[in-house]
Amino acid sequence: MTPVVSQGEEQFQRVFAEAPIGMALFDSEYRFVLVNRALAQMLDTTEEALMGASCESILQPDEAAGQRLLAERLLGREVQGYKVQRRYPSGSRPERFADVTVTRIDTEDGGVLGLEMIEDITEARRAKEQTRVHEAELAHATRLAMLGEMVAGIAHEVNQPLAAIVNYANGSTRRLQSGDVQDMRVIQDALSRIASEAMRASEIVRRLKSLARKESVQRERQPLEEIAERTLRLVESEVQAKDVTIVMDLAREIPPVLVDPIQIEQIVLNLVRNACEAMLEQSDPKRVTIRTFREGDESVAISVADNGPGLSPALLHRVFDAFFTTKRSGLGMGLSISRSIAESHHGRLWAEENAPQGTVFTLALPIFGGNEN
Ligand SMILES: Nc1ncnc2c1ncn2[C@@H]1O[C@H](COP(=O)(O)OP(=O)(O)OP(=O)(O)O)[C@@H](O)[C@H]1O
Ligand SMILES: [Mg+2]
User: Fold this and answer.
1) Could you tell me if residue 1 is inside a domain?
2) Counting Cβ atoms within 10 Å, is residue 21 exposed (0-12), middle (13-18) or buried (19+)?
3) Mean pLDDT of all residues in the chain?
4) Is 357 found in the same domain as 238?
5) How far is the CA of 227 from the centre of ligand 1 (A)?
6) Residue 143, pLDDT score
7) Whole domain around residue 201: which residue ranges?
């Protein structure tokens, strides 16, 4: 028997059947009275197999009871509709995820039907999950790279005082062995330098520990020229041994800066050591000039200039990259660390050609208390 259907009903049935998303109509018993092809395909079954079946029978067992309760509230006319997310078993395929909108339909003869619109979001979910996994992998790789840089940075900072300690100790041993001990002050001086370098290493470790604990660093008001003088004392003997003359050109009367003095000394030390290393092979007199001066309205600067081989314009920027080195035993971290320290002080560190020959590195730091100071 062919049921007599109105034109409107026929159109509805066509739309229903052809809809690109899953559609189903259920009755007051929560059984399917109409399903479309999209739903059958999604569940890897046929429309015939679904017709008349209990709606619960196609759900994952752990979701069935909850879904029945929701349907009962709708069928009892307590709600007009609801939206849920569901998982559906799909034959031998992996389960499907769907956004489901359920709407109550009150029929002309006083009955109730439920209309389900079931949108398969499995692919979208999978794509999102893949993006999430990819992002997590990227974040992990970035963390690893940062960790690598940090470890190299720590190695670099701790290595410097250790190398100095070894030098002083070896020098003293040689003097003692050769009986060259007329002047005990030389040995005493070496011992006190060993002690201060060791203090320096332990200060670096202490700072690392506070960094790990995220303690804020101690900033002090300091005149730049004092930092320059302290750094000079640290490198003096090392520099003399390399036949390098240091010229100090310090502007007095310039405003102070607010800094972690150890960190700024670390930058100047790195610059002086690099300058000495750059001039290692040259027969011309080796000269390093440390200058402090006012740099514009808002900052003061300290520069370290050498008369070494200089840097090509392309390298003036690259030398600040982590791991960039031309030295056999270099880590390539000195300038990269120095620049991050400068930036953490809201300062800048850059390199330029020195006239007539060599390179100048300049560290500019904001004046403490602004430019009225
Ligand atoms: N004053 C300078 N003159 C010429 N080249 C320089 C100068 N300072 C640095 N460079 C170049 O920049 C590179 C990077 O310097 P950086 O201090 O970052 O690392 P490094 O000295 O090689 O190793 P380390 O990590 O032990 O300091 C050096 O290898 C050198 O080629
Ligand atoms: Mg270096």
Assistant:
1) no
2) middle
3) 89
4) yes
5) 22
6) 64
7) 123-216
The residue out of 216, 231, 266 marking a domain boundary is 216
Q: What is the DSSP letter of 31?
A: B
114 has which bridge partners?
26, 104
Same domain, 313 and 212: no
Same domain, 42 and 170: no
| Beta-carbon-side half-sphere exposure of residue 280 (alpha carbons within 13 Å) | 6
| Residue 42 CB-density burial (10 A; 0-12 exposed, 13-18 middle, 19+ buried) | buried
**Mutation to probe ligand 1, out of 267, 335, 340 (largest number of atoms < 8 A from CB):** 335
Q: How many A from CA of 194 to the centre of ligand 1?
A: 25
Pocket test for ligand 1, best of 289, 319, 337, 354 (most atoms within 8 A of CB): 319
Contacts of 286 (CB under 8 A, 6+ apart): 242, 243, 244, 245, 276, 279, 306, 307, 308
Evaluate: CB of 333 within 6 angstroms of ligand 1: yes
Q: Is the CB of 324 under 6 A from ligand 1?
A: yes
User: Which of the pair, 151 or 286, is modelled with greater confidence?
Assistant: 286
Q: What percent of the chain has pLDDT over 90?
A: 62
User: Encoding tokens for residue 108?
Assistant: 């002309």
Residue 2 in any domain: the answer is no
Strands 286-295 and 244-250: parallel
Distance CA 295, CA 278 (A): 26
Atom of ligand 1 nearest to the CA of 306: 1
Contact 232, 246 (CB under 8 A): yes
What residue has token string 């290595």?
159
How many residues in total does the chain contain? 373
Q: For residues 246 and 290, is the Cβ–Cβ distance under 8 A?
A: yes
Say what the pLDDT of residue 1 is: 44
